[in-house]
Each structure stands twice: as structure tokens, then as C-alpha cells.
Amino acid sequence: MNIFRLGGDMLHVVSIFLLLLKIQTSHSCAGLSLKTQILYMVVFSTRYLDLFFTKPWHSALTFYNTIMKILFLSSSAYTIYLMQKRYKHTYDKVHDTFRIQYLIAAAAVLALIFHLRLTVFEILWAFSVFLESVAILPQLFLLQETGEVENITSHYIFCLGGYRTLYIFNWVWRYFTEHRRNQWLAWGCGTVQTLIYADFFYYYILSRKQGKKLRLPP
């Protein structure tokens, strides 16, 4: 554990809090992509299969990881429930049209080709890494289609992007301190994911400086 990993995890937790806060306080999921939330659920479900085999009390780090995994899985499931059931009448199905089946198929093919070890768990882990790197695309696509972005929604996406950015520094730190030099797959996908957020970061910071609501160009 290092400060970059901890900071990234905390930003991830904050992003979840902001997402649920937006839905619960406004009683609406307008401006949010259900397809992105489904992709994140697929990512966490395929990455955290070790929950069935890990003893959480083995060490403090193992316990921390277990809590984080359960939080990410449960919050994703709850968000999907809110969007599909409780507030489905506010869901913008018209603009949430990104074809996520292509992202899932591409991630599956890449995982079969590029993986660290030829085992089911490693291939599923690689699949989750590839898919997570593009999971935010339906959300960004939706915001570009609709134009103006609610403040709390923009904060949610900014925290998600910040979490991935800090994880790059985490990998660099581990490269030099733990000699973890076989993480090329995570490095590559994490860099791609951060670059996807770069355009959003630019307009987010610009809107903060101008004191205006965030608007993404079409």
C-alpha cells in the first residue's frame, strides 16, 4: 500500500458517494448512463472472483481489499437497481445508445490474446482491465449528446478520472519499490483510460475557472 493507491481508492469511493447522492437527492438518474454502470458491474464481477477463495482476515491489506471489492460490487448493483427500477422513468434511454456489446467483445478478444498467464482467472482479470479502460465511454457519449452537465455529475466523473490517474503513479511507485515489472497490461490500459478522460478534464477545469456549468462539445 502506498499514498497513490490509497488516494486513488478514496477518490473511487468519493465518486460512488457522489453518484448515489445525485440519484437519491434529485430522485432522478437523468444524465447518467446505465450502460456505463452495467459495464462497471461486469468489470467488478469478473475481477473479484477471488472473493470466494480469499480469507479476509489473513492480513490487514487483505481485509482492506475485501472491503473495497464488496463496496464496488454492491454499489454498482445498487446503482443499476435504482436506474432500472426505482427511477427508471427518469432514465434517458433515447441518448444512452452506445453499443456496449462491441466494447465487451473487443475486451474479450484482447484478453484471450494478451494475458499474463493462461488460466481462467488471469484471462478474466485481463478482460476486466481491458473493459474498465473504456467503460466510461457510454457516459461521456451521453453527456456529449445532451450538452450541459449537472455539477454533481461532473464531479463524479472527475473523481473517477482522478482515481485512474493516481493509479498510474501507484504503478510507477511499485515499479521502483517492489520491482513489479510484469504489469504492462495494467499500465497500458490505465494510460489509455486516463487519456480518454483528458478531454473531459480540460473542459471540467475550464468550467470551474469560469464559474459556469460544464458543457461538452458535440
Q: How would you characterize this protein structure?
A:
The protein is mostly helical and 218 residues long. The chain has one domain. 72% of the residues lie in helices and 2% in strands. It is built from 8 helices and 2 strands. The chain has helices at residues 3-26, 34-47, 60-86, 100-113, 120-132, 137-146, 151-177, 184-210; strands at 148-149, 214-215. It has a two-stranded antiparallel sheet with strand order 1-2. It starts with a helix and ends with a strand. The model has no long low-confidence stretch (mean pLDDT 90). It is a multi-pass membrane protein.
Search tags:
single chain, 218 residues, mainly alpha, two-stranded antiparallel ribbon, 8 helices, 72% helix, globular
Number of strand segments = 2
Count of the separate structural domains: 1
Q: Strands of the biggest beta sheet: in what spatial order?
A: 1-2
H/E order of the elements? Answer: HHHHHHEHHE
Helix segment tally = 8
CA-atom Rg in angstroms? 17 Å
Terminal residue distance: 40 Å
Strand content: under 5%
| Secondary structure: helix percent | over 70%
Query: How is the main sheet built?
Result: 2 strands, antiparallel
Any idea what the shape is?
globular
Structural class by secondary-structure content? mainly alpha
Mean residue pLDDT = 90
Q: Which segments are poorly predicted (pLDDT under 50) over 5 or more consecutive residues?
A: none
Describe the structure in brief.
The protein has 218 residues and is an all-alpha fold. The chain has helices at residues 3-26, 34-47, 60-86, 100-113, 120-132, 137-146, 151-177, 184-210, and strands at residues 148-149, 214-215.
